[in-house]
Amino acid sequence: MTALREQGVERIDTVTGDTMDELAQRGLTEVSFSADSRFVVGVTNDRLVLWRNSPGASDRPARYDGWDGTMPLHLPLPPQDKPYSVRVDAAAGAIRYLGAGGRTVRTVNARDVLGAPRDGVKHPPSLLSPTGRVRAVPRSRGGEVSYELRDAGSGRLLGTTPRVGHVPGRTPGSVAAFSPGGRFFAFTPVPLPVDDDGTARGTANPRVAVWDVDARRPAADVPLRRGQEPPGAPAVANARGVPVVYGVLSPEAWDLTRSRRITPFREGGVATRMALRPLLPLLALNDGTVLDLGTGRLLRDHTERDIGEAMAYSGVGDVLAVADGSGRILLYDGAMKSPRGVLVAGEPEGPDGSPVAVTALAFSPDGRTLAAGTRAGGVRLWDVPTRTAIGSPLPTSGDHVRSLAFSADGRSLHVQGSSTRPRTQSLDPERLADDLCTRFGALTRDEWASYIPDVGYRDIC
User: Fold this and answer.
1) Range of the domain at 442
2) Phi, psi dihedral angles at 91 (to 5 degrees)
């Protein structure tokens, strides 16, 4: 049973009488259940929100976090719609509501969320190569993990890596990385389990496996010190055809291939992510540190307090994008010596009106467009030269965005969520217009006046 409150939706288990966790969202005007009660959908004057109706504490990770977020869909709606009578049609993979004063039935395609397989096991999401050409898909079996390397467009199998031992169920973050050009792929066991007394335990033979994507064969096997925690954010460089693996072992960065520390120990170090600059041997950390890998010299030794979860270089390495912890994206030159601007969406995405952290970044092949994905599932495009947003956020499944990559021609964007199938979003205006005309036909003059009253009529089909 549900009851609307000022802060969101109160839920009560009608069998036990227990009060369940509140579903947070201000301004709700209506909610309803799916037929099987697995989902709760609600609307505000300008938002549609879908929750998974998870009753147990083990099924309720932190808001917008973990692999199985309780709010997988959070979509802005046209302000003139004034939605009501919202319903979930799980069989059709759709959410429908009445809009435009009850004159129109709106349909939201939510197939990726409503139809996503959920077997109670936490599966790490696939990882996209920087070129958008290859998708690495994890496969777990018998306490080991391997990756299938597949063509991102056709799904064709390109190779399967050797298996590496890991601890099932302990997968809170990405443990794999491609080299900047996509030649090498490195992966490592998941973070360590913890004993009852708080002592971390290592795997029997902790290591980082490296796969040559082009040659379709193993490239290296990098052993870690026994008891050494595998890096939560590895990076692999292509050093003239030879892979070199780096990792953050908080609070330091390490050259794992040579088993040596490459940044000085700093009390309270907070770096959690790293990025390799294409074409030049530079390594940047998301706490603001930049290291010249050729000389070992620190080019920038600066700790940022408000670090984020994502960073990315443009294809030629002249611009570095770093997400901070407040939803902003900071742009720098390749060595982080001078700031190039700040990107701010200006639209809160959280249910309480707070900004939501950016969790994935990717540059288009020409470096002029930056795609940013958020913990709330939003994806937005930015024009890098003018520092302005391109249109409104792209339609997505609302799932926590884990990785993004443009296609080689820049006309589509691959989006990987934490618990939904990968999606490919077309960015070609002509193709999008053709698809719409094929599906719906041209608008009549009356329809045009109803939906686009501020623009003069044109025969766009």
Assistant:
1) 428-461
2) -60, -40
